[in-house]
Fold:
Amino acid sequence: MSSPRLGGQLPAALAAIIPLMTQNPFSLQGKNALVTGSQVGLGAGIAIAFAQAGANVVINGIDNRGIDDVCAAVRAAGTKPVVAIGDVSDAQVCEDLVATTVRELGSIDILVNNAGIIRRQPAVEFSAKNWSDVIEINLNAVFRFCQFAGRHMLAQGSGKIINIASLLSFQGGILVPSYAAAKGAVAQLTKALANEWAPKNVNVNAIAPGYMATDNTAALRADPARSKSILERIPAARWGTPQDVGGTAVFLASPASDYINGHVLVVDGGWLAR
Structure:
């Protein structure tokens, strides 16, 4: 291999890189993914983006709402969807969903901890149930899935875990103390697991979405004053979409992010920059 500009042979380091450049670093071809809470919203967008990048995907929801549409989109992309209904607040369901992924697809190469809920109430009135429900799904289930999937990934010597954090991993929010507490903890859990597992070729990172047009923000978008104040602070001047997060998830699940560990990647239209 020669180059007139370089006057002969390419430097050894560059010659070693060029063959790698012929491969698509963003391809998920042949990979198997589990995306929790993927029947609608951000999870559905991530699952479909994974399929379009070549991955087979386990679609999870608490019921069948939206499942058929997501499965159809995955099939249209040319990959295999697997439906797995279950409430991730149940520890046994968490373990079963990982086992289903391995049984039905042959491995678990990618895990996205997307399932989540939110409860809004003033802190002095915040009920014990609102606190425990949110912590159970938004934090405890995340750890369980990481633990169960991590065992398989460590054994096979590779894997990508993507936790869905939030702007409230950095900020306190309003009227959502349990959500803020859980999402702050998810960011720290991501870093803690990356410290342990990065040397073993398992990447653990997180995405912190900004204000997204999903069910969780329906109340905010329906409030003219709050919606206006939110949009005025977002440099992109719009609410985010599942597609905005889907591409970011493909990046963190792909070989393109192999040297990224313990990072919380913000997808917020510029909110934190203002």
Summary: Residues 33 and 110 are 4 Å apart (CA to CA). The mean pLDDT is 94. Residues 25-273 form a domain with the Rossmann fold fold (CATH 3.40.50.720).
